[in-house]
Amino acid sequence: RDVTGVQTCALPISTGVVSPDRVLAVAFTTRAAGELRGRLRTLGRQALAGGGLDRVQARTFHAAALRQLTHFWPLTVGGVPPQVLDSKVGLLAEAARRLRLRPGPADLRDAASEIEWAKVTGVRPEAYPEKSLKSSRTLSLGANELASLYAAYEELCLERHVVDFESVLELTAAILGEHPEAAAAVRARYSYFVV
Predict the structure, then answer these.
(1) Is a pLDDT exceeding 50 seen at residue 10?
(2) Helical (H) or strand (E) element with 193
(3) Cβ-count burial of 21 within 10 angstroms (0-12 exposed, 13-18 middle, 19+ buried)?
(4) Which parts of 12-82 are beta strand (E)?
(5) Which 3 state secondary structure label does DSSP give 192?
(6) pTM
(7) How far, in Å, CA of 179 to CA of 77, rounded?
(8) 128 phi/psi in degrees, rounded to 5
(9) Number of C-beta neighbours around residue 183 at 10 A
(10) Angle at 175 between CA 172 and CA 179, to 5 degrees
(11) What is the CA radius of gyration of the chain?
């Protein structure tokens, strides 16, 4: 039984069936990943001393993808991997100046959120006006202005060799999809995923 009194089964790691080095646990938020790491440490100390739970990797989806991106980029794309932006807002402000747009700070934050939506749903800048209309997206900037801002932002990212968190996922998936040796290395490294 665990600390809450819920019946649990023996973990495959504790029985030696699964090597903890071959497990990747992923969570959506940094907080959840930290809690997962803490629970693994607690389990390792309490019930499974010496079981190797401390060797299970627990990360957010983005952190796991970033680690793979930085590892495989030099081998597949070549050169230094791009840096990750902490925030889109500064680059969006610069892109807006290039386009002679004058959005306010709240508009830039809304645009950043809208670009995140577009990227996670696979909408490219040129398709944004039509897709936003079909999805009833509303924001202070018009759909055409947002599409232009999105395109200018993407150009600046390329020029500066930076990526946002959504691009980290896209690029990692592209590398794994287009380079069989990279995908094989991930499959050889991890046999078990916990979400």
Answers:
(1) no
(2) strand 192-194
(3) middle
(4) 23-27, 57-60
(5) strand
(6) 0.79
(7) 10
(8) -60, -50
(9) 14
(10) 150
(11) 21
